[in-house]
Every structure is written in structure tokens, then in C-alpha cells.
Amino acid sequence: MAATIQDLQQNRLLNLLPREDQRRIARDLVPVDLRRGDELLDVSIPVNDVHFVLEGSISVIMIMSDGSAFEGRAVGFEGALGLVAGAGGTRRPFRRGIVQFGGKALKISAIRLKQLVEESAGIRDMAMRNAEIVVFTMLQTAACNALHPLESRLGRWLLMARDRIRKSELRVTHEYLAEALGVHRPAVTLALKSLRKYGLASGRGYVRIDDAASLEEATCECYRTIKYQLDEMLAAG
Ligand SMILES: [Zn+2]
Q1: What is the pLDDT of residues 128-139, one digit of tens each?
Q2: What is the CATH number of domain 149-219?
Q3: Three-state SS for 153?
Q4: d(CA 178, CA 71)
Q5: I want to staple 3 with a disulfide (CB 3.0 to 4.6 A). Which of 7, 103, 133, 197 is the partner?
Q6: Element (H, E) at 57
Q7: How many Å lie between the centroid of ligand 1 and the Cα of residue 43?
Q8: How far is the CA of 141 from the centre of ligand 1 (A)?
Q9: Structure pTM?
Q10: Where are the chain's structural domains?
């Protein structure tokens, strides 16, 4: 079953495309469910498919040679998994893509997407815009990880996850947050505790943001900078 134009418009990148390009790409996009734990990119195989997320979130995990892992970025309805590699041809991704929050996506074969990028200036522009967003977000996140305290980085991660999945209660473990931020688990537990006064509640397997405005005030500038840039770069027209 092909995707409808209404499906496409739920993804902020696909929503940027002129209507003619939306119709062109819709024929090749297939709606799929994202289930928590699904592995959509693997270090050992080429990028076969590109996933445009409609709901939920996929984490892109970097694996070091000693087996330690770090979340390089996460993709929600503002983006796509595999698009940077997929639009340039099918290459090995050197990272894993794992569904962190279940939802829905539109899938297209990387080979077909590459043809569409060559045929259409609108689709090419969308792929370029995505590459700019990925680079900008990763640079800002790298600066944040290098310069800002753990509480701020945790606040940024949680607010970005909330925006991506549009829910205030996030099903995440302290172990996962430690991996996402590249720190040990006890440090995450302490940081979560110190953010309680900003309306953060947490328990086994969940974190809930009860007062996003207050948490935003307690967080460094990076959350606001990334959000502002995303809104600018994804503004249609
Ligand atoms: Zn920061």
C-alpha cells in the first residue's frame, strides 16, 4: 500500500516538498510500524532503506571497538534515518539505528530514493536540507557535551525527546540515558534527582516532564538553539 499525501505531511522533511514531488515520491513510500527495539540500520550491512519518521523516535548509536555505545543523534518526525547515506548511494552506515520510542514511518528503498534525488530538484533540496540539519544538530550537541554540565545536557536530551515524540512521559531507563549522554549510570541518577526541583519526575523505566518551562530554564542554551534552527530550516516556503 502506497503512502497518502496526508501521511507525507506528518513528516517535516517530506512536508517541505512541492506538491508535485510529494506525489512523485508517495508512490514509492510504504507505511511501516516502528516497534521499540527494532534495528533499522546495522553496521555490517549497506543502507537498503530510508525511513521518514511520522511518529516515535529512532536512536542512532555509535559503537566503539571495545563495545561501548553512545547515542550520536535521534530522529523523530522532523527527519529521516539513512537519508544522508541513502541519497548518495547505498553505503555501510558505521552505526546502528534502533527504535527507542515506537511509532510509524514511511519507508523507501535507498536505490529508488537516489534515482528520485537525481531526477528532481525539490527532492534533492530536501535531502540537502536534511544533511544540513544533521550536521548542525550534531555540532551543537558535541559542543554541549564538551562544555556544559550533565544536568544541562540531560535537560536538553529530555526536552528534545519530548518534542520528538510529543509526550511528556518518556519510557527510558537510567541505563539508556547514561548511554545517550556518554556517562555512568549513577551520574544520571544524581542529575535526575537534582532536576526534580524543576518539575521532573522519574521512576523505574520512565521520566516525566511536569513543567517543561521550568526545565527549559534550568537547561543550557543548546536546547533552544537547536529548536530554533530546526524550526527555521524546516519552515515550508
Ligand atoms: Zn548545552
Answers
A1: 999 999 999 999
A2: 1.10.10.10
A3: helix
A4: 10
A5: 7
A6: strand 49-63
A7: 29
A8: 7
A9: 0.93
A10: 5-143, 149-219
